[in-house]
Amino acid sequence: MPPEVPSPAISTAPPANVTWLVNNVALSTAFTPLDAADNYSQAITKTLQVQVKNNVPAQVLAETVTFLATAN
Amino acid sequence: MNDSSTQKVRVQWLRCTCVCCILFSASWCQGQIGTAKVTVSANVQSSIGLVFLNNAAVGTNGFCPLTNAGTNNVGLDLGQASFTTGDSLACVQFFQFFGFYVVDSAFDVVVTKANSTSANYQLAASLATAPPTNVFWTINTFTVLSTTATTIQNNNNYGQRVTETLGVVVNQTVPAQTLFETINFLATAN
Questions:
Q1: What is the average pLDDT across B9-36?
Q2: pLDDT at B2 over 70
Q3: What is the 3-state secondary structure (H, E, C) of chain B?
Q4: Domain ranges (residues) in chain A
Q5: pLDDT confidence of B9, banded at 50, 70, 90?
Q6: In chain A, which residue's Cα lies nearest the Cα of B114?
Q7: Which architecture characterizes domain B47-189 according to CATH?
Q8: What residues in B contact A15, CB-CB < 8 Å?
């Protein structure tokens, strides 16, 4: 069974000094490869993070993160 | 061409076609994609924090060291004092007036803000319990504290040290005893 390549991307650019990450990898509106060769049918744990600087005004941060799996 | 050779050609052609199909389908599978979405939200809330620090002059008269300095929960030992003999600690400032004696020591307060547009803050203090008769806890000499919050400063700047002098005023008629007090400092964003 061939492996896959998961790549997340955020739908909109976050406010200044806010960064969305998966497993400490910063996300952008372009797909960012995370793993090169994951196995099909196996659960993979990913940690979604948001990094906020202390000068960011109080607000609600909303984001849609799209994950793309590409067959190798 | 006889029948057997024609059949052989057909079989070979069929094999060739099958191999081509397998190769085509394998290459067609490569690069297939699947997508999924996670919609997530987070609430950024404003906050302020307060810590107590030793004053730069710590160790000199009027500036005793805090225990646990750099946190929001510190201790301050003002030693043993009497009207006639003064205080046991050199770092404690001691003086007498009109039948009372005062022991005091100064330390710094730093309030920081995060994710806030607040320009400055108000600082207040209160006692956890009422002191014995003729004992008064003070801030900056002239502000007497009680169990309700008393404003000390109205417009302090974030991130800057503010020196506060905590004192206790004791009448000479007060019996010998240990004076113990918890003083709560409250910073409120303006």
A1: 57
A2: no
A3: CCHHHHHHHHHHHHHHHHHHHHHHHHHHHCCCEEEEEEEEEEEECCEEEEEEECCCCCCCCCCCCEECCCCCCCEECCCCEECCCEECCCCCEEEEECCEEEEEEEEEEEEEEECCCCCCEEEEEEECCCCCCCEEEEECCCEECCCCCEEEEEEECCCCCEEEEEEEEEECCCCCCCCCCCEEEEEEEC
A4: 4-71
A5: low
A6: A54
A7: Sandwich (2.60)
A8: none
B44:A61 CB<8 A = yes
Please give the ipTM for the structure prediction: 0.85
Residue spans of the domains in chain B: they are 1-32, 47-189
Contact B39 A69 (CB under 8 A): no
Ranking A5-14, B40-49, B133-142 by mean pLDDT, the lowest is A5-14
Residues of B with Cβ-Cβ distance to A72 under 8 angstroms: 30
The model's pTM is 0.78
Q: Measured between CB atoms, which of B31, B37, B41 is closest to A62?
A: B41
